[in-house]
């Protein structure tokens, strides 16, 4: 893998200079536990925060290596880090006084946590090879965790609960804490509304997705899609990004460049232009883990990405700056845009700041399918309607019925924009969507209001 210059990673140490500002406004983590900011300041974010950071996992571990103790320590570190990370977005976005100027500390902690998560995966695999345990997986709410059970070399009668991945239980606890806090905020808003005659804030439903719907004047947009090694932006890496522009109302610009770089020959331009595909590497430890699911889904061999000459995205400042420039030039569109939005926050230098300052507009085709597509009907498999990109694109004539979503960034961004344009044309003809009585003027989308 291409070695990143040491000065490129200097920002990780520099990020710890922001700790006093964060400590002043965020005393507790998402588990409602006091944050030990002194402990955070002592972390070696460049060399690694894992207990096994000095081990070479490319060869079988020495029998004297205490895998159990290392795994236990790494789980404790990850819980502490992720408890902090889970609170950072809410804290940053709610910092109306701008006491926190930068989001680089959460990005730095996420950088370290990804590599810690790689280490945890390799320790689990090492224990499996040593026949300490067998491994199964369990999923809930989009989170998949390894579940260990004793194998032949595990000491008889010794419990395993302290080396089990508690992510599912932790996530449930955090959701409960978050709901309680939101309920308290809603109650306070109701009290305020009675005094001011303003409408109270509503929480606890999916109506928030409507803020991502386009308005009547939407035109030039940037469609984007990411492929990653997982769904958690603090644990997984961006490995593929595809984007292109398309005009929803005006004609194709005279200077538009259309590039035939789609992997599928049946993809027509459909007025798309400025097509681009970016691929990224992963750290060597990530490449040593099992990524069969990603290979079968996308065709991308993650295990080869440590030797492809490409840097990981979170170690590639120039790529981050280039992407941020594109994201701020016009609204960007994604399907289930909160996914891309979270990855951008924890990977792209300056993105969270630009979003908070109102320089980024996000449009989501998922609520377009959910609220405006008559073909999105409830079924046994999809009680709220089938709003996957694959289904939406097929209903809007952007993807042939006998083909499936490609699960590559550029290809998925393309069918998404084609579907969006076809859908908007249909809605306008019917005076529906943005053009009905409840439609929004302007370009629509989610955008933070600037505060003065």
Structure report:
The longest helix has 30 residues. Strand 1 and strand 2 form a beta hairpin. About 2% of the residues have low confidence. The protein has a five-stranded mixed beta sheet with strand order 5-4-3-6-7, sandwiched between helices. Strands 1-2 form a two-stranded antiparallel sheet. Helix 4 packs antiparallel against helix 5 and helix 13 crosses helix 14. It is built from 14 helices and seven strands. By secondary structure, it is α/β, with parallel strands linked by helices. It is globular and about 70 Å long.
List keywords for this structure.
40% helix, 452 residues, globular, five-stranded mixed β-sheet
Number of helices: 14
The helix-and-strand class reads: alpha/beta
Give average pLDDT, whole number. Answer: 91
**How many extended strands?**
7
The rounded Rg comes to 23 Å
Q: Compute the separation of the termini in Å.
A: 46 Å
Q: Could you name the ranges where pLDDT drops below 50 across 5 or more consecutive residues?
A: 195-204
Oligomer: single chain
Shape: globular
Compact description:
By secondary structure, the chain is an alpha/beta fold. It has 14 helices and seven strands.
Tell me the layout of helices and strands:
Elements: H1 10-15, H2 19-25, H3 37-41, H4 67-93, H5 104-129, E1 133-140, E2 143-150, H6 167-196, E3 220-228, E4 238-247, E5 273-279, H7 284-288, H8 292-298, H9 317-329, E6 332-334, H10 337-347, H11 351-356, E7 362-364, H12 365-372, H13 389-395, H14 409-429
Parallel strand pairs: 3-6, 6-7
Antiparallel strand pairs: 1-2, 3-4, 4-5
Helix pairs in contact: 4-5, 13-14
């Amino acid at each position: 893998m291409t070695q990143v210059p040491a000065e490129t990673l200097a920002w990780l140490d520099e990020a710890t200079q922001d700790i006093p500002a964060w400590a002043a406004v965020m005393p507790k983590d998402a588990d409602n536990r006091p944050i030990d900011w002194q402990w955070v300041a002592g972390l070696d974010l460049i060399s690694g925060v894992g207990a096994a950071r000095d081990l070479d996992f490319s060869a079988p571990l020495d029998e004297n290596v205490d895998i159990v103790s290392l795994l236990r320590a790494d789980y404790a570190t990850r819980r502490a880090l992720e408890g902090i990370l889970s609170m950072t977005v809410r804290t940053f976005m709610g910092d109306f006084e701008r006491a926190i100027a930068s989001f680089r500390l959460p990005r730095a902690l996420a950088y370290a946590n990804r590599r810690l998560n790689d280490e945890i995966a390799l320790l689990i695999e090492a224990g499996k090879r040593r026949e300490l345990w067998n491994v199964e997986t369990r999923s809930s709410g989009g989170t998949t965790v390894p579940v260990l059970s004793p194998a032949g070399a595990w000491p008889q009668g010794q419990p395993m609960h302290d080396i089990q991945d508690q992510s599912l239980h932790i996530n449930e606890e955090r959701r409960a804490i978050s709901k309680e806090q939101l309920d308290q905020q809603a109650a306070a808003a109701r009290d305020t509304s009675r005094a001011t005659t303003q409408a109270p804030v509503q929480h606890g439903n999916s109506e928030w997705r409507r803020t991502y719907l386009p308005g009547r004047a939407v035109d030039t947009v940037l469609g984007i899609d990411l492929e990653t090694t997982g769904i958690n932006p603090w644990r997984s890496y961006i490995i593929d990004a595809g984007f292109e522009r398309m005009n929803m109302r005006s004609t194709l610009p005279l200077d538009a460049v259309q590039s035939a770089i789609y992997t599928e020959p049946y993809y027509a331009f459909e007025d798309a232009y400025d097509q681009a595909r970016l691929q990224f590497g992963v750290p060597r430890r990530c490449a040593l883990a099992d990524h069969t699911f990603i290979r079968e889904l996308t065709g991308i061999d993650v295990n080869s990405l440590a030797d492809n000459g490409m840097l990981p995205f979170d170690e590639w400042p120039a790529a981050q700056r280039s992407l941020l420039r594109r994201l701020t030039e016009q609204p960007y569109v994604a399907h289930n845009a909160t996914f891309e939005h979270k990855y951008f926050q924890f990977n792209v230098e300056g993105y969270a700041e630009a979003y908070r300052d109102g320089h980024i507009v996000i449009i989501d085709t998922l609520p377009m399918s959910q609220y405006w597509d008559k073909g999105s009907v409830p079924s046994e498999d999809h009680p709220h309607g089938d709003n996957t990109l694959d289904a939406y694109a097929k209903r809007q004539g952007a993807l042939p019925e006998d083909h499936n979503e490609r699960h590559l960034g550029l290809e998925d961004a393309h069918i998404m924009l084609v579907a969006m344009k076809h859908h908007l044309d249909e809605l306008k003809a019917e005076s529906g969507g943005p053009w009905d009585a409840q439609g929004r003027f302007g370009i629509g989308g989610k955008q933070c209001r600037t505060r003065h």
